[in-house]
Amino acid sequence: MPESKSSAPQTSFNPEPWIRPNIRTLNPYHAARDDYHEGILLDANENSFGPAIPTDLPLHRYPDTRLNDLRQKWAGFRGIRMEQVFVGVGSDEAIDLLMRVFCEPGRDEIIITPPTYGMYKVAARINNVGVSEAELTKNFELDARAVLQRVNQHTKLIMLCSPNNPTANVLNQVEIERILKDFNRLVVVDEAYIDFSDSGSLCHLMDAYPNLVILQTLSKSFGMAAVRMGAALAHPKVIEWMMKVKAPYNVNQLTADAAMLAFDHVDKMREKIRQIIAERNRLAAALADHPDVETIFPSDANFLLVRMRGALEWYKRLADRGVIVRYRGDQLHCGNTLRITVGTTPENDQLISELYDTKNASDH
Ligand SMILES: Cc1ncc(COP(=O)(O)O)c(C=O)c1O
Predict the structure, then answer these.
(1) Is the CB of 88 under 6 A from ligand 1?
(2) Which of 333, 340, 226, 232 is nearest to 280 (CA)?
(3) Which of 180, 242, 263, 276 could form a disulfide with 209 if both were Cys (CB 3.0 to 4.6 A apart)?
(4) What average pLDDT does the segment 149-157 reach?
(5) Residues of the chain with pLDDT > 70: what percent?
(6) Residues 351, 283: contact at Cβ < 8 Å?
(7) C-alpha of residue 218 to centroid of ligand 1, in Å
């Protein structure tokens, strides 16, 4: 049965009892630069003679441990406060960290809602944390009742993904809020693809629901997957626990600098989103006419989930012709599907022409 949640105001929110006992008593690593960071810096055993490679960048210095400037920029972009932002090495770091902070190995559990992003389960397995599965409906909708029925005293995190990977749809906000209200631990909503959707981020719910954790990334809408920069947005008390457990210099300086720039180019990001959505619509229209295509699922993301006859054969055939898509037919409710990232116009043209090339024609 779900544990009932007190309606206490946010000021009394205290996640401490949910923290793993060994973390609660942890004396975090104190980095050399936490106290002083200007002057003649002889405190951190850096190479005072500079980097071995030819560069004007101060690569011989350890990066900032708290990255407040970047956290401030992210917060400003999403209309929240700096204290509500954790930045890390992709959102994958935040997923792993949440498990390490909140889930006792060999005892605690998370709930996931398949079909969904595979890293939640992988991170749980790596951390020896149990995984309970509350399926999405056959239409890929979130069923809050099914999720809450799976809650037990060891459930520490509920992982939701909206827009969901691989199904591409935004989850129903009413159902998400039901879970936030009725579950008295953390509900994580992964918004990796949120900027491609009309629905907008759930950041505005963070004050109403202090147990809400939102994951975001620069890998998708900002087109900066190589930089490895993601964030967890949550109540400051949750963020502080994550900061205590993270590696002191988790984000490297090159990444931090590139990420700062990202928020100065939001207009460019939005322009690329418009282009991707236009291409997504064009691609969907072209696929709709294909004789093997059965369903093109509605997309709030930068990819399409497509059900087609002979999906596995198409996957291999396309790969042989140099067009790599993702076979998702092995995922729950996703039989015979391909997940296709929206490419550039020439890339999509190539995909379409391979699909319509009669030499490739399916014989099902
Ligand atoms: C739902 C979802 N979350 C997170 C990620 C990974 O994000 P990052 O590159 O920030 O680790 C992905 C990548 O595909 C994803 O699909």
Answers:
(1) no
(2) 340
(3) 180
(4) 98
(5) 96
(6) yes
(7) 9
pTM of the entire predicted model = 0.95
Instruction: Give the Å distance between the CA of 190 and the centre of ligand 1.
Output: 8
User: Which residue lies with its CA nearest to atom 12 of ligand 1?
Assistant: 192
The residue whose C-alpha atom lies closest to atom 8 belonging to ligand 1 is 90
**Residue bearing the CA closest to ligand 1, atom 11:** 90
Residue 165 Cα, ligand 1 centroid: separation in angstroms? 9
CA–centroid distance, 116 to ligand 1, in Å, is 11
Could you tell me if 303 and 341 are in contact, meaning their C-beta atoms sit under 8 angstroms apart?
yes
Structure tokens at 161: 């993904």
Evaluate: CB of 92 within 6 angstroms of ligand 1: yes
Architecture of domain 267-360: Alpha-Beta Complex (3.90)
Q: What residue type is assigned to position 282 of the chain? A: R
Going by pLDDT thresholds of 50, 70 and 90, the confidence category of residue 362 is low
Q: What is the CATH number of domain 11-264?
A: 3.40.640.10
